[in-house]
TrEMBL record:
Family annotation (Pfam families): Glyco_transf_4, Glycos_transf_1
Residue span, Glycosyltransferase subfamily 4-like N-terminal domain: 19-175
Keywords, in A-Z order: Glycosyltransferase, Transferase
Domain of life: Bacteria
GO MF annotations in UniProt: glycosyltransferase activity
Protein's recorded name: Glycosyltransferase
InterPro entries assigned: Glyco_trans_1, Glyco_trans_4-like_N
Enzyme Commission designation: 2.4.-.-
Stretches assigned to the Glycosyl transferase family domain: 190-320
């Protein structure tokens, strides 16, 4: 198939990844290319040059419009809309069999676009007003949508999802996140350093439990870092930097526990399955899709309750490391994810509105 992959423009699609959405798009491009598809990545021009890249904008907009995401800035909105409109015109004329849209933009959802090239839109954020109406108005035989979990699907369609919408869980390559047979007694946390990811709660719980903790990830919000994280570092609490996948996997595999602290309705939780693949049981907050993702691989408590999180740490540490690893192998591998993407593309090309895998609509 000739596939157009349309990415979000906030960050480049290149390692080390700024977040789960960037990792998703990169692995999708890499995996589909390896399966023999003709893939063109529509992303920022500073994305990974190993792909066939059609630049939607020259650089990511945190570089050209720093700090303006989620601020309603008119200049950024006009810049992004113009870039996507031009890219969608190129896609429409490019002989593509299918578009996999990961942009979080309303423009690829327009019927004139989806009627031209069959489109799969993967939703990567909780519902928000700027996109909600366009998502709800968009399903058709030529446009299917996916959420990353049953909780995420229900958040977008609380009264029941249409037949064109289904659950497509994320996946990781187990070989890239190798199993560590034994931990060193420490905890790890990884993710974007921003309040909704809750690293400050992980620090409080680890200190209370007397557990060394290392944080990994990009500093997305400098004010949060300076006021809520940096002053708490020292002693058994350290920052390990923003690491590429192989280096992060090696660090995770050495730890004994992963702390997962979403303070928003996390649509999935890619960081958790990366750690689980390495054999780390999870102590975390039961928010968003956390229960679907973690399952028997951890112990979850109420969100933003650091004391309860500290209390869950001994029970999580008692979980054999094989259990979280096996859960990932059973439910969340990259090959399973790519298989389902290909099935969805085939259904779109056939104009089939029914789900090719109805069981995916339920929690694992």
């Amino acid at each position: 198939m000739r596939i157009a992959l349309l990415a979000h423009l906030r960050y480049p699609i290149a390692p080390p990844f700024a977040g789960g959405l960037e990792a998703y798009c990169w692995h999708l491009a890499e995996g589909l290319t390896a399966r023999g598809h003709d893939v063109v990545l529509f992303a920022t021009g500073d994305s990974d040059p190993r792909f066939s890249l059609d630049p939607v904008s020259p650089v990511h907009h945190e570089k050209s419009f720093p700090g303006l995401e989620h601020r309603g800035d008119a200049g950024l909105r006009a810049h992004v809309d113009a870039a996507y409109a031009a890219a969608l015109d190129r896609i429409g004329a490019g002989g593509f069999d299918v578009v996999h849209n990961n942009s979080l933009s309303r423009l690829p959802l327009e019927r004139r676009r989806t009627d031209t090239v069959p489109t799969l839109t993967s939703l990567h954020a909780p519902p928000y007003d700027a996109l909600r109406w366009f998502v709800h108005d968009s399903p058709s035989p030529h446009h299917r949508l996916t959420a990353t979990s049953a909780a995420h699907l229900a958040a977008w369609w609380p009264d029941g999802a249409p037949p064109e919408a289904s659950v497509l869980p994320n996946g990781v390559d187990p070989a890239a996140w190798p199993f560590g047979a034994e931990g060193d007694g420490s905890a790890a946390w990884s993710g974007r350093l921003t309040p909704v990811k809750g690293a400050h709660h992980a620090i409080a719980a680890a200190r209370s439990a007397g557990l060394p903790l290392t944080l990994f990830g990009p500093i997305e919000e400098p004010d949060y870092w300076e006021t809520a994280i940096r002053p708490l570092l020292g002693g058994s609490i350290r920052y390990g930097g923003h690491l590429a996948g192989s280096a992060l996997a090696a660090e995770l595999a050495r730890a004994s526990l992963f702390l997962f602290t979403p303070c928003w309705d996390e649509p999935f939780g890619l960081a958790a399955i990366e750690a689980m693949a390495c054999g780390l049981p999870v102590a975390g907050f039961a928010r968003g899709a956390a229960r679907e993702v973690v399952g028997e691989g951890g112990c979850l408590v109420a969100s933003e309750d650091a004391a309860a999180l500290a209390g869950a740490i001994p029970a999580a540490l008692a979980i054999p490391r094989e259990i979280p690893r096996e859960r990932v192998l059973r439910l969340f591998t990259r090959e399973r994810w790519l298989d389902r993407c290909e099935a969805l593309y085939a259904a779109l090309r056939a104009g089939d509105a029914s789900s090719p895998f109805p069981a995916s609509r339920a929690a694992p």
